[in-house]
Amino acid sequence: MKSCLLGATCACLIGSGVFNPAQAATWGVEVGVATASPCPSFCGGFGGVFDSSFDGGEFSGTAYTSLNNAWGDGQASANLSGPTLLPVLGAEGLSGPNSLAGSSAVGMRGYTYSGATATTISLDIALDGERGGTVFSNDAWVESNVAVILGDVNAFVADYPTFIFEVVPLTPGLSELGTSNLSLDLNAGPQTKADSINLTLNPGDEFFVWAGIEAGGVRDGFGDAFNTLSMSYSDDTGITPSAVPIPAAVWLFSSGMLVLVGIARRKKAA
User: Checking CA distances to 215, which of 66, 68, 76, 170 falls within 20 to 30 Å?
Assistant: First the structure.
């Protein structure tokens, strides 16, 4: 009898729209690490060996993964713990001879500007790390991409080209407020690259910050930006992060438990 009542309650909640994940602001973090061998002039081919590891996704607030094998090693982390819950991302990949090791981290978060008047602020970006290669200039990479999008983004996308060239242009109501693309210099030791995106916001504006970083190397090359890609607003007055939705499973379980508690209380009172 209790399971029947619980099932009916769940069905009622779903049908009544008490919680609809599609209506919640989309945000999350995702990380991945991959290795490949052999890499003479390209990677893979006949007899190629590949390995990978991933973590996170939509509505994940933190993610971490690592990989270590005969062809290289890497790690990646992402969390929404920066100022005003902005993404903080780290990635590194160190390849072995004739191999590839690369990693990536992505984060996105929505915001609302609730100030009384229009304002112009900047999103300040810092990329810290090192990039080293021994054969060709493209044997190592550390690159970051940041985009600020005006509107209500309803899809979590981990790939920058897909997000900026497909999702944004093809989604009504979305437009770019600005982008940033940074790359560390080869064999220049530990370094910091900085950039800013100027944002003009009107009261009630909803906008999203999308950030991604990629690091890795081929043929003993390496890219190390594990500490890290970070961001902050020059002035966060009136800027509020999007609300964190409760997963549907938690809503349904909690609501069902409340129903059962009510039934138990009524029986006890009787």
Answer: 170
